[in-house]
Amino acid sequence: MAFELMARGASVIVADHDDVAAEDVVARARGQGHCAVAYSCDVRDPAEIGALFTAIARDAGRLDALVNNAGVFPRVTLQQTTTEALDDVVSVNFRGAVLCTTAAMPLLAPAKGMVVFIGSSAAEATTLDAGTAPYFQLYGASKAALERWALGTAPALAAVGVTAVVVRPGRPLLTDGVLAMDLPAEELSQYVDPAFVGVAIGWLLAQQPAAWTGRLLSARDFGSSWGDARA
Question: CATH number of 62-221: 3.40.50.720, 1.10.3720.10, 3.40.50.10540, 3.20.20.70?
Fold first, then answer.
């Protein structure tokens, strides 16, 4: 996702709880002539979120966009659901996005700033009718909370000149976290490269942001109806 945005000319801040992974992305980006910088941040920790945006304010001064894409996918059934599993998925998928958004607000350029929330079709109640796996529910609930908060908060963000948009990939993303699960090849074949969503976000950032505020959009629409043939 970050490389897709950089290919469009964006300077990207990579924030990750895995310092090595973040630095690797930045090293590869700079090797390709892109502008990128890495910061360490575990969004489960409010203090680390505060430190992240303090550092960004010091080093960059402003943000054009914030992409809330941190996520975990706990593969637990109802019987396996513990307090720790619940707290982890909520603190990363929902609370982290809320706290990052509020911390970023002073840095987002009025009338141009955008906050993109990565949602999921798992948030839809209709997915319960599709024979979803028994470990899918906790993740779906956290994404439902995220989408509801993002769309409900959009008017307040718009009042200070910041656009809020929810983008649903429409397909599961092949992230490092997914690869670490050692899933069977048949299941992995359903996943797509995160650059798929990067196309959608890049397209949005090139538009007049305010026109999209409070919208829930599907990344699968890009290319077929929104003019980007690479989607």
Answer: 3.40.50.720
